[in-house]
Structure to design on (247 residues):
């Protein structure tokens, strides 16, 4: 059985993996779905000090204090930058990295420049610049359309500290990080937008580590069975070689 650590994206919390967590646990796997500082059930901890390094430390500390090893470390969207930083720090505890609809760049803003437009809709609250204030439009932006999912998500989304999105990721152990097998699962929606690095996708396709799911950006909510199924395949090592796209 595998051990998964599922890291959420901007404005979310560990709660967003509830469906995927239940599916994986039903198969006997161990699953951690932490919430990053200042978000979700830890939104009361938001402060001007919360940045990308804070969130990387959240995940690295979880791996250390829970004494986890050979972990399948999954990062959705902004969480992809977080898991990359955590693996750079404690790579000896990470067996595989899975980027779940997570475009890559030195910062989240570089990976997804449209965030600069979102900044225009943000505001400063108690000295913290926040973006992604919850709304039905935001839920639709995340690609969730089912009324029950929308009703469940909307009260759980929380504004996200802008500082963490613009801070560049600093890597200190790149060779060890690059030695960790990396897998990419993308949504059809984001693929159509062209926000993913073509070279990284081509490399993943050539290695049989690339899948497309016909879903919106929050595919762990809108397509949990597909996500859980692929995560199980990745952990078991049963993924096919060559290009393998699943819709």
């Amino acid at each position: 059985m595998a051990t998964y650590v599922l890291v959420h994206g901007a404005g979310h919390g560990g709660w967003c993996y509830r469906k995927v967590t239940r599916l994986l646990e039903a198969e006997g796997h161990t699953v951690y779905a932490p919430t990053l500082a200042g978000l979700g059930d830890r939104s009361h901890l938001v402060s001007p000090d919360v940045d990308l390094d804070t969130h990387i430390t959240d995940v690295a500390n979880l791996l250390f204090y829970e004494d986890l090893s050979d972990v399948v470390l999954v990062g959705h969207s902004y969480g992809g930058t977080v898991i990359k930083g955590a693996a750079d720090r404690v790579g000896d505890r990470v067996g595989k990295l899975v980027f779940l609809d997570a475009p890559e760049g030195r910062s989240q803003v570089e990976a997804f420049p449209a965030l600069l437009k979102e900044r225009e809709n943000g505001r400063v609250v108690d000295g913290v610049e926040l973006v992604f204030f919850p709304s039905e439009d935001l839920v639709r932006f995340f690609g969730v359309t089912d009324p029950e999912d929308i009703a469940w998500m909307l009260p759980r989304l929380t504004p996200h500290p802008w500082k963490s999105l613009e801070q560049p990721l600093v890597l200190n152990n790149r060779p060890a990080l690059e030695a960790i097998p990396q897998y990419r699962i993308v949504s059809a929606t984001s693929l159509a937008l062209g926000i993913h690095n073509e070279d990284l996708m081509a490399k993943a396709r050539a290695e049989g580590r690339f899948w497309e799911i016909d879903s919106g950006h929050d595919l762990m909510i809108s397509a949990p069975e597909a996500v859980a199924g692929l995560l199980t395949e990745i952990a078991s090592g049963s993924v096919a070689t060559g290009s393998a796209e699943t819709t």
The first strand starts at residue 3 and ends at 7. Residues 52-65 form the longest helix (14 residues). DSSP finds 13 helices and nine strands in the chain. Strands lie at 3-7, 30-32, 71-76, 94-100, 123-125, 128-131, 160-161, 182-187, 210-213.
